[in-house]
Amino acid sequence: MLPGFAIAFFVVAVIARPAGQAPDGARLLDPDRSEFQEHAPPVSRIRLETSKGAITLEMQRAWAPHGADRFYTLVRAGFYDDTRIFRIRAGLWAQFGINGTPAIAQRWRNRTIPDDPRVLSNLRGTVAYAYKDPNGRTTQVFINLRDNSSTHDSEPFVPFARVMDGMAVADAWYSDYGEAAGGGIRAGRQDPVFEGGNAYLIREFPKLDRIDRATILP
């Protein structure tokens, strides 16, 4: 039996999240659910509540339809809640998007979406998916901390959103671990993160910042 305070807190937390946005591990364990095939609206705003403050993103589906659809449905389902910002190259980019529950992270690890043609350049504040192979984007995304267009546009990394407010928050995320806490997809060193989840990252890299909660704004 949970203490009364814990029960009350849980009820408030569920009620506080708008309809359709309650985090539910059972939903996330089933990537084939119809809700994960839905389209994002033409324009949406996403709020990332992080350990250093809040960031607001603007996302336009025309910039990258497949990428926007995936991010929108995952945010609504709570996929990015309580996830660590595990890879930061100071002044270059900040990457997150591996769910903190290993069973969920593993279910989505190879759930790829088709490539989108690039519309936006990888300017400071834009958000794009990390990937290794063509048509290989899944759930991991990064925020460009500077203008990376000279290197990233030709890859191509395809921005699907951009920071409207709170860029200073992303600049302040803890970056001293660099590539040690998993690195990028292409380095092939992410198995411990997928297998150990938040417990592993908290134990081995306790100073990492985190996304506490991601929500779609009205």
Account of the 3D structure:
With 218 residues, the protein is α+β, with helices and mostly antiparallel strands. Helix content is 28%, strand content 22%. The protein is built from seven helices and nine strands, in the order H-H-E-E-H-E-E-E-H-E-E-H-E-H-H-E. The protein has helices at residues 4-16, 25-28, 65-77, 102-108, 149-152, 167-172, 191-204; strands spanning 43-50, 53-60, 83-84, 87-89, 93-96, 126-129, 141-144, 159-165, 210-216. The protein has a nine-stranded antiparallel β-sheet. A hairpin with a 3-residue loop joins strand 4 (87-89) and strand 5 (93-96). Helix 4 (102-108) runs antiparallel to helix 7 (191-204). The N and C termini lie far apart (36 Å).
